[in-house]
Each structure stands twice: as structure tokens, then as C-alpha cells.
Amino acid sequence: MASKTQIAFEDFFPAMIEKRGTEGFMDELCNGFRLLMDREKGVITYESLKKNSVVLGLQGMTDDELTCMLEEGDLDGDGELNQLEFCVLMFRLSPDLMNGSRRWLEEVSMNE
């Protein structure tokens, strides 16, 4: 009987926002995007995700799981994640961020 690999996602995002503030958290998300992106294309591709997932401790992910992750965040259907799609996906993966997003958006608006 084949076993299915499950990726455990611990939601550290709310604690990061409390510690670094909204702007610092957004900087960290952008750093995460740059870490995973294809340097030549400026987007996260399947190949760049597979290559760089080891840095995030996700080396155990199957090809299907990597593909599903890309498909989950790919809003424009091009098979890749741009920075906005990546950030939206990260917010969607964090239930606590989704619940508190209105407060954080208001904080960012007040700082502009």
C-alpha cells in the first residue's frame, strides 16, 4: 500500500508580523520570492521551485506536490508565479493572516 506524503505547514506568519511589523513581513515575503525564483525569468517556475525547495526544507515534496503548489498560486494561468501571485498564495496558506489581513492592510495604508 502506497503512503501519501503530507507537507506539514506551521503558520509562523502572524508571529512574524507581530515581531517585524507589516512592512518587515512584506520584505520577508519578497525575499522568499527572490529565493525561489528563476533568476533569468524573474518568476517562480517548476524548475526553480524544485531546485530551491531544498533551502526551505521541502526536499521531500513529490513532483506532483510541486506542480499542485504552482497551480494553486497561478492566478493568470501561465504556469509560473510572479511576485504578486506568490504573496497572495502565502496569505491564502495562512488562515490567521487571512483573518487579520484587514488590520494589516489598514496599517500599511496609514504608513503611506
Provide a descriptive summary of the structure in words:
With 112 residues, this protein is mostly helical. The protein has five helices and no strands. Helix 1 runs antiparallel to helix 4 (83-92) and helix 1 packs across helix 5 (95-111). The longest helix is centred in the first third of the chain and has 24 residues, at 13-36.
Strand-residue fraction? under 5%
Tally of DSSP β-strands: 0
Instruction: Output mean pLDDT.
Output: 80
User: What gap, in angstroms, lies between the N and C termini?
Assistant: 56 Å
Low-confidence stretches: 1-9
Shape assignment: globular
Number of helices: 5
Summarize the helix and strand pattern as letters.
Answer: HHHHH
**Into which percent range does the helicity of residues fall?**
55-70%
Quaternary structure state of the chains depicted: single chain
Structural class: mainly alpha
Radius of gyration: 15 Å
Most strands sheet: none
Fold blueprint:
Elements: H1 13-36, H2 46-52, H3 63-73, H4 83-92, H5 95-111
Helix pairs in contact: 1-4, 1-5
Give descriptors for this structure.
mainly alpha, 5 helices
Q: Care to give the gist of this entry?
A:
This protein is mainly alpha-helical and 112 residues long. The chain has five helices and no strands.
